[in-house]
Amino acid sequence: MRSQPVRPLHAVVVMAVLLAGLWVLEGLDQLSGNALDSYGIHAREVDGLPEIFTAPLLHAGWEHLAGNSVPFFAFGLLVLLGGVARWAVSTLVSVVSSGLTAWLLTPAGTIVLGASGLIFGWLTYLLVRGLWSRRPGQVVLALVILFLYGGLLWGVLPGAAGISWQAHLGGAVGGVVAAWLLHRDDATRRRAEQLPAFYR
Questions:
Q1: Nearest CA to 173 among 107, 99, 71?
Q2: Which of 9, 101, 105, 160: CA 20 to 30 A from 50?
Q3: Does the structure show a pLDDT above 70 at 187?
């Protein structure tokens, strides 16, 4: 899938606005006595499925949001630099995969909130897209991210109480799927473009 790259400054502005929006929403949630938390994912409740799209925008307090802010901005920025279309597809696939997995595997009666599922989707997307694109820059970037943030991947396994490993796992799977969807034809296309016109 072709996608026009985004200028770095524009990408920074977009991600900064989105991150600011998360902080504003958390402020409104605090002022409302956590009323917005009801828009999180209600595990195994059919009428709660639409909340898979609102849950990533909400957090269970300032500490939760602060912990997600840096990776949200950094990974989102790196994905966005590759183009708006790829950012949108990888985001949508990660959100849906994370939300459905959390909805299905989380114990009933639980509300799941937070952007971490999306963050895991962006993380795995950045890590594996080079497998299909074969672009040296993307491979090097993946190695750097793996070195700096590889420890986060343990979050897909059951761990501390109150942390949704289900959302992490679903998001991670979504990121891999998005990378395959978006980059599976990249290497073939690049080889074709390098051939003389006579051989195309």
A1: 99
A2: 160
A3: no
Q: What is the 3-state secondary structure (H, E, C) of the chain?
A: CCCCCCCHHHHHHHHHHHHHHHHHHHHHHHHCCCHHHHHCEECCCHHHHHHHCCHHHCCCCHHHHHHHHHHHHHHHHHHHCCCHHHHHHHHHHHHHHHHHHHHHHCCCCCEECCCHHHHHHHHHHHHHHHHHHCCHHHHHHHHHHHHHHHHHHHHHCCCCCCCCHHHHHHHHHHHHHHHHHHHCCHHHHHHHHHCCHHHC
Which amino acid belongs to residue 141?
L
Using one digit for the tens of pLDDT, what is the confidence trace for 44-94?
A: 999 889 999 999 999 999 999 999 999 999 999 999 999 999 999 999 999
CATH number, domain of 109, equals 1.20.1540.10
The confidence score (pLDDT) of residue 132 equals 87
Number of compact structural domains in the chain: 1
